[in-house]
Amino acid sequence: MIKKLLIMAFLLISRATQAQDIISASFFTGSYQDLLQEAKRLKKPIILDFSASWCEPCKKMDRDTYSDELTASIISLKYFAYKVDVDNIDGLEIGKKHKVTQFPTTLFLDYNAKVLGRLKGFYPPNYFVKLLQVNQNKRKRGQGKEENFDKLITSL
Fold first, then answer.
1. Predicted pLDDT at 100
2. DSSP letters of 1-34?
3. In 3-state terms, what secondary structure has residue 89?
4. CB 30 within 8 A of CB 38
5. pLDDT tens digits, residue range 116-153?
6. Into which CATH architecture does domain 41-155 fall?
7. What is the pTM of this model?
8. Arithmetic mean of pLDDT over the chain
9. Where are the beta strands (DSSP E) in the chain?
10. For the chain, what are the domain ranges?
11. From CA 30, how far away is CA 146, in angstroms rounded?
12. C-alpha closest to that of 106 among 124, 122, 90
């Protein structure tokens, strides 16, 4: 009887662990330059998430959107995602280079670091997933012009 209980407990724990494999989108942990080199080498597009510790909508993006299972899966499989912390000098410089003035801002780049899309503010997972799909389709069609995704959201 004890053996059966232990087996059942083990199975329940292993299932719970499998369900939590992707808790949040995985973000690249190296430097910004390393990110650009790796994206180019693997020909994988980039998502830059500009945020700050004092920014409540940024925290909501982390808590609600990047932690959504579908969003996290798509980002982790299809993109190099990178958090740009504008609370430090490096983050401020990257933000200045990309003309980021509002937080959160999410930039979609191709693997050559060309900006394809810009999204300002918080967006819930269902919209964000649609934007990820639009960005993937845009890349496949070879459209390289920057687009303001904020305007696109009204058509989704």
1. 96
2. -HHHHHHHHHHHHHHHHHHTS-SS--B--S-HHH
3. helix
4. yes
5. 888 999 999 999 998 888 777 765 655 555 655 655 55
6. 3-Layer(aba) Sandwich (3.40)
7. 0.77
8. 81
9. 46-51, 80-85, 105-109, 115-120, 147-148
10. 41-155
11. 26
12. 122
